[in-house]
Specification:
Elements: H1 3-12, H2 15-32, H3 34-47, H4 53-73, E1 89-92, H5 94-102, E2 107-111, H6 117-127, E3 132-135, H7 141-152, E4 157-160, H8 165-173, E5 177-181, E6 191-196, E7 199-204, H9 206-214, E8 217-225, E9 231-235, H10 247-268, H11 284-294
Parallel strand pairs: 1-9, 2-5, 2-8, 3-4, 3-5
Antiparallel strand pairs: 6-7, 8-9
Length: 295
C-alpha cells in the first residue's frame, strides 16, 4: 500500500474518533505489556519518590495516552496552514526564535519526546521558515517513509542522526535551524553522563558540541497539550553556552544545563513525557569498564 493511500484511509476516520480509540488502545497496551509498564512505573518512582504508587500509575497511564494521541494527530499536519494554525496551537516566545535566526549563525532548538513535538515543528515552519529535524531512522521502512512525507508537507526536512555531524555543521553555517530531541538514552561513547532526576543519565553531547563549534544559538522548545486538545509551543530565551576553552569540561557543563531545563519542564507536566523509554539504561560502570580494558 502506498503511503498516500494509507494516510487517506487513516484520515477518513474523524479525528475525535481516532483520539478516543487511541485513548482506549493506550490503556490496553499499558496492561498488556508488563515489561514497558514496569519500566514506566520504575522510572516514575525513582524520579518522584514523594509520590504514591497510585499517583505514579495515574501518570504512567496518562503518558501512554499522550503518546497515542500524538500518533493519531500526526496526519493532521496535512490540514495545517498558516491561516488555520491558531485552531491548533499558540506560541509563546516566538520573538526569541526570530531574533536568533537573524543572527545568521544557525539555531539549535532542543526539546524532548513531550506533548506533540511534531505540531510544534509545523507551527514554526508555517510562521517562520522550514527547519531540519534530526531523527533516528525508524526500523520499519514504511513508517519511515510516512513520517518523512508528513514532515515534508510543511517544508521540514528529516535528517537522520547517523553520521550527520558534517552535514549539520554545513547547515548551521548557512543559518539553518536544527531541532534535536535530547531526552533519550545513548550509548556511553555517544554522550556524557549528567544528572537527570537525581541519577546519572547518558545524554547526547551533540548540541553542546555543535554550539561550541559554530556559535549557533541554543534554545529550548516544548509543545505542551492543553485542556481541550489545543497546544502551546513555548520557546525559551537563548541558553548561555559556556566556552572556557576546556572542551571536555564545557561539553559536560552545557549538556548538564540543557538536561536540567528538560527536567524542569518534565517535572511540571510529567504525564506528557515518554516514561516507558529506558532513559537510564546505559550505566557509568559500562564506560569505565570498557575504557579500562582499552588501556
Amino acid at each position: 500500500m502506498k503511503k498516500e493511500t494509507a494516510i487517506f484511509l487513516f484520515r477518513i476516520i474523524p479525528l475525535a474518533v481516532r483520539k478516543a480509540l487511541a485513548s482506549g488502545i493506550s490503556r490496553l497496551v499499558y496492561y498488556l505489556s508488563p515489561k514497558h509498564r514496569l519500566i514506566a512505573i520504575h522510572n516514575l518512582l525513582r524520579s518522584f519518590p514523594e509520590k504514591s504508587l497510585k499517583e505514579v500509575c495515574r501518570i504512567a497511564k496518562r503518558s501512554y495516552e499522550s503518546f497515542a494521541i500524538m500518533i493519531v494527530e500526526f496526519t493532521e499536519i496535512l490540514s495545517m496552514k498558516r491561516e488555520n494554525l491558531h485552531h491548533w496551537i499558540s506560541i509563546i516566545g516566538l520573538e526569541h526564535y526570530t531574533a536568533a535566526c537573524r543572527e545568521g549563525k544557525g539555531v539549535l532548538l532542543f526539546g524532548a519526546h513531550f506533548g506533540n513535538w511534531e505540531i510544534g515543528n509545523v507551527a514554526l515552519a508555517l510562521l517562520t521558515r522550514p527547519l531540519v529535524f534530526m531523527v533516528r531512522l525508524l526500523d520499519n521502512p514504511f513508517m519511515e517513509e510516512v513520517t518523512t512525507y508528513l514532515r515534508a508537507a510543511c517544508g521540514n526536512i528529516s535528517l537522520h542522526k547517523e553520521n550527520a555531524m558534517r552535514k549539520t555543521l554545513r547547515l548551521l553555517r548557512k543559518g539553518e535551524t536544527i531541532n534535536i530531541l535530547v531526552d533519550q538514552n545513548v550509548a556511553w561513547y555517544e554522550g556524557v553522563f549528567v544528572d537527570f532526576f537525581g541519577r546519572p543519565a547518558c545524554t547526547t553531547s551533540g548540541v553542546a558540541q555543535l554550539a561550541l563549534h559554530t556559535g549557533a544559538a541554543v534554545m529550548p522548545a516544548f509543545t505542551r497539550r492543553l485542556p481541550g486538545g489545543r497546544y502551546l509551543l513555548e520557546i525559551g530565551p537563548k541558553t548561555d553556552i559556556i566556552d572556557t576553552g576546556n572542551r571536555d569540561a564545557d561539553i559536560f557543563i552545557n549538556t548538564q544545563k540543557i538536561t536540567k531545563i528538560i527536567e524542569e519542564y518534565v517535572r511540571k507536566y510529567p504525564e506528557q513525557w515518554l516514561w516507558l523509554h529506558q532513559r537510564w539504561k546505559t550505566k557509568p560502570w559500562q564506560a569505565k569498564r570498557i575504557k579500562k580494558k582499552c588501556c
